[in-house]
TrEMBL record:
Coiled-coil spans in chain: none
Protein name: Deferrochelatase
Family, per entry: Belongs to the DyP-type peroxidase family.
Cofactor binding annotation: Binds 1 heme b (iron(II)-protoporphyrin IX) group non-covalently per subunit.
GO terms of molecular function: lyase activity
């Protein structure tokens, strides 16, 4: 698989692919001002481990594109492009060829060709991954309407949406992740320059996650509300993971074999309102304890919630509108999606409230059986909806990985 190039990170206390956002709990052990020989050895070992982060690589070529099951990185950029006026299939193919060559070089820790900016000159690849996808409008712009997947039909309207069209959709989508901000920016700048006259940026969103090694042991990370987030993510070790996340080899259209569909949503968290709630009320909204992510019905983070358990007054311990209840796969006909988002903070609005939240990215073999049914149910009565606002949205077909010597999307653009 394309995402199997990382190994050392799993030894450094990172959260893995199920982590979602900025970590607010846990921390690395500190060192005494006058360390003993033992602590000096620990410090030296830790320094060596942190140095190795820059050397970690993710493979560009493979059955699937990188950035799907790649352990979530500490810095991310999501960018949508529109093809320029007059640009069509020929220009799109040339662009994807250039982009793929540049992504392959940068992910291997090499300089970009044609005048590198040297932004990341002193760094290794730092787990850089670059992922490419096509929006609904791409197929009309390139004369490939007959190859447009039905799964790429526009998402339905949801009552909680407050979408900004200028920051939604797009012909082409690029996801960049790395464990060094300069490496991530370097890739962003290189790909933007490679677009040349063929495409222009439609929108860009910048996100972050907990830094590798920030916690003393591996744990699911927290979102900006302080909640452990990502507990029930599908895991690659599960027998039905590929079926839920990737388009099968026999799928239609054939060029999407090994690919996946990414739903991208900019979800603003109304943090001022959320933080006015007491701890008990916050936990009731989610249905889990804030301290360790365990369900209100008891156990640990991985314990299945007892949805039928009632308190002494006969009320459900986990409320009917609790987020944890509504999002359970067994409460949604088995619908599942792999969530792999970044947190964001874009300053403050005119009222002084933080413009912060989640750059939600989820992956599935079919959004009509993954994201849509879950979001519809959330839309009808999730207690968390009062404290979040969906402000931008996109759906992108992400083809399978490129074989050696190929570029991403070649099976579509040269069919």
């Amino acid at each position: 698989m394309a995402d199997n190039g990382i190994s050392r990170r799993r030894l450094l206390g990172t959260a893995g692919a199920t982590g979602l956002a900025l970590g607010a709990a846990g921390g690395a052990a500190g060192y005494a001002a006058a360390p003993s020989d033992a602590s000096e050895g620990a410090a030296s070992s830790r320094a060596a481990s942190l140095t190795s982060l820059g050397a970690d690589t993710v493979m560009f070529h493979g059955k699937h594109q990188p950035g799907i099951t790649t352990p979530v990185q500490s810095r991310g950029h999501l960018v949508a492009f529109d093809l320029a006026a007059g640009a069509g299939r020929k220009e799109a193919a040339a662009l994807l060829r250039r982009w793929s060559a540049t992504a392959e070089r940068l992910m291997a820790g090499k300089a970009a060709e044609g005048g590198d900016t040297d932004v990341a000159r002193d760094a290794g690849p730092s787990s850089l991954s670059v992922t490419f996808g096509f929006g609904h409008s791409f197929f009309g712009r390139t004369g490939l309407e007959k190859q447009r997947p039905s799964a790429l039909d526009p998402l339905p309207d949801f009552s909680s949406d407050r979408l900004d069209k200028a920051r939604s959709d797009g012909d082409l989508w690029v996801q960049i992740g790395a464990n060094d901000p300069l490496v991530a920016f370097h890739a962003l700048r290189a790909l933007q320059k490679e677009a040349g006259d063929a495409a222009r940026v439609r929108w860009q969103m910048n996100g972050f996650n907990r830094s590798p090694g920030a916690t003393a042991h591996p744990m699911t990370t927290r979102n900006l509300m302080g909640q452990i987030d990502g507990t029930n993510n599908p895991k690659p070790s599960e027998d039905d993971f590929d079926r839920r996340i990737y388009v099968p080899a026999t799928g239609n259209p054939s060029w999407m074999a090994g690919g996946s569909y990414a739903v991208v949503r900019r979800i603003r968290m109304l943090l001022d309102d959320w933080e006015k709630l007491g701890l008990g009320d916050q936990e009731a909204v989610i249905g889990r304890h804030k301290s360790d992510g365990s369900p209100l019905t008891g156990g640990t983070e991985s314990t299945e919630p007892k949805l039928e358990k009632a308190d002494a007054d006969g009320k459900y311990v986990i409320a009917l509108n609790a987020h944890a209840r509504i999002t359970r796969p067994d409460q949604n006909g088995g619908s599942a999606m792999l969530r792999r988002p970044f947190s964001y903070h874009d300053g403050f609005d005119k009222d002084g409230e933080p413009d912060a939240g989640l750059l939600f990215v989820c992956w599935q073999a079919d959004p009509l059986r993954g994201f849509v049914p879950v979001q519809r149910k959330l839309d009808r009565g999730d207690a968390l909806s009062e404290f979040i606002r969906h402000e931008a949205s996109g759906l992108f077909a992400v083809p399978g990985g490129a074989a050696k010597g190929e570029y991403v999307g070649q099976r579509l653009l040269e069919a």
